[in-house]
C-alpha cells in the first residue's frame, strides 16, 4: 500500500498577524498545492478551495479549523494521470469534496499582503473511504469497543 504525504501551500491575504488569529480563506485568492512523493518521481498538482477557516497560534504554529477542498478540481498536469487519480484513487465522483483539518503551520505570515505557508494536518477523504468499507463489510472488522450502536447501523444497500 502506498502512502502519500500531502503538503498544502495556501496563499493568504491577511491584515495582521497576532498571537491568536482566525483566517477566513477566500476561494478566489487561495491556492492549494499538493506534492506526492513516489519511488520513481514526485507529482505536483493543485486543488480548488470551496471554503475554509484557519485558527492559528503564531507563537507555536499550532492550528485548527476546517478547509473544504473541491476534490473534483484536482489537477497534476497530466490528463491520463488525473483521470486515473479521480477514478481509482480519489473517487471524486463519489466523494466530490473533502475536509482538511489543519494541525500545524510552518512559515511566516506577513502583517500585510500575501504570505505563503505550509499547512500540515489530516484529510477526511481517506477516513470516509475506510468508513465505507467498514459499513459495507462490518463482519470483516474486529472492534474492541462498540463502534456503532445497533440503532446507528444501516443496511449496506441504504448507504450511499
The number of domains: 1
Major beta sheet summary: 7 strands, antiparallel
Write the CATH architecture name: Beta Barrel
Which CATH class? Mainly Beta
Structural class: alpha+beta
Number of discrete helical segments: 2
| Poorly predicted ranges | 1-17
Rough outline: globular
The CATH homologous superfamily? Lipid/polyisoprenoid-binding, YceI-like
Rg (C-alpha, Å): 18 Å
Can you lay out the helices and strands and say which pair or pack?
Layout: E1 8-13, E2 20-25, E3 32-37, E4 42-57, E5 63-75, H1 79-89, E6 97-106, E7 114-123, H2 124-136
Could you explain the architecture of this structure?
15% of the residues lie in helices and 42% in strands. It has 160 residues and is an alpha+beta fold. It has a single domain, classed as Lipid/polyisoprenoid-binding, YceI-like (Lipocalin), CATH 2.40.128. Strands 1, 2, 3, 4, 5, 6 and 7 form a seven-stranded antiparallel beta sheet that branches. Strand 4 and strand 5 form a beta hairpin. The longest helix has 13 residues, at 124-136.
